[in-house]
Design a protein that fits this description.
Elements (H helix, E strand, L loop, with lengths): L5 H12 L11 E6 L5 H14 L7 E3 L8 H14 L4 E6 L5 H13 L4 E5 L20 H11 L3 E6 L10 H13 L4 E6 L3 H13 L5 E6 L5 H11 L5 H6 L7 H21 L4 E5 L5 H9 L8 H5 L1
Parallel strand pairs: 1-2, 1-8, 2-3, 3-4, 4-5, 5-6, 6-7, 7-8
């Protein structure tokens, strides 16, 4: 059993004995994930979100990559624009799906030329939901091989995925942890977890990862839930459990979007506060291209916007 430092015990007591969000130090570091827009309206929404979140001085923002590389061009354009128009470090997601090693090298070199120095390297989901992953005949078989391949091309900073409740395809938690360790051994900088809804889930996972010899940074991925039905679909794909109390909490809010947002922010912020009390100082937010929930949670955690909009990040 891991020994909890005295400072963490003090922090835990403080979280219980005082208003949860009173006078936090603002020492948390955050990052945000977006997806590439499909329409002009969605693009406006994305850039409004970036505009709102940029003054929080994120460590980086990442842009997802659709199943089977279906958003390849849009991902590249979005990342390239973030690099060109803001001072925020941008990370591009890249997967093994339906891509040869030559394809990956071409994409990676294009990113490097565009000033992108950070890749989120993933095995990726098959383009057809429910299908089994099959590597390209001339491609990488898994994320660990992809990490090693990218490192051989350029000295990228590389983030990888971790699964606190185990990947749905994993034979066991032990095999899943072995896979995560292989990604770090191949050169990954950090792991970002899939979302979860209990702080204990994250802490237990970190304890098991350390016991398995994983020493790299593990960052909790936070998904503020405002649409339980949509979240249930996401959860089914990544092996996350949605507690029954969360379903009950959102009952009756379908026609009350403002109330739903408030409840969502409250639930996610409370979990982040408990993670903070346990010593977590890095958080990664799945924004779904909306800024309000992530911004409010960051504010509750003590972060304050500096300057105004993208100019502040430049």
């Amino acid at each position: 059993m891991s020994t909890v430092p005295f400072s963490q015990l003090e922090e835990a007591r403080r979280a219980l004995d005082t208003p949860l969000f009173a006078d936090l130090a603002g020492d948390a570091a955050v990052s945000f994930e977006f997806f590439p827009p499909k329409t002009e309206k969605m693009e406006e929404s994305l850039w409004a979100a970036i505009q709102t979140l940029a003054p929080l001085n994120p460590r980086f923002v990442s842009v997802t990559y659709g199943a089977g590389g279906s958003t390849r061009e849009r991902t590249h354009q979005t990342v390239e624009r973030i690099v060109a128009e803001t001072g925020i470090p941008a990370a591009a997601h890249l997967t093994c799906v339906e891509a040869s090693k030559a394809d990956i090298e071409e994409i990676a070199r294009a990113y490097w030329s565009a000033g992108v120095r950070h890749i989120v390297a993933l095995r990726g989901d098959p383009p057809t939901q429910g299908a089994s992953f099959a590597p390209h005949p001339d491609g990488y078989r898994n994320a660990a091989e992809l990490v090693a391949g990218l490192k051989a091309i350029h000295p990228f900073e590389i983030s990888v995925a971790a699964y606190p409740e185990s990947h749905p395809e994993a034979v066991s938690l032990e095999s899943d942890l072995a896979n995560l360790k292989a990604k770090f051994d191949a050169g990954a900088t950090r792991a970002i977890t899939q979302f979860f809804f209990s702080p204990e889930t994250f802490f237990r996972f970190c304890d098991k990862a350390r016991a398995a010899g994983i020493e790299g940074e593990i960052v909790p991925g936070i998904l503020p839930v405002s649409n339980v039905a949509q979240t249930r679909k996401f959860a089914a794909m990544c092996g996350a459990a949605i507690p029954a109390w969360m379903d009950r909490l959102f009952e009756g809010l379908d026609d009350h979007p403002a109330a739903r947002q408030l409840v969502a922010a409250t639930v996610a912020a409370e979990m982040c506060r408990r993670l903070y009390a346990g010593g977590v100082r890095e958080f990664h937010f799945y924004t779904l291209n909306r800024a309000e929930l992530a911004f409010s949670i960051c504010h509750l955690l003590g972060l304050r916007a500096k300057g105004a909009g993208l100019e502040a990040a430049a």
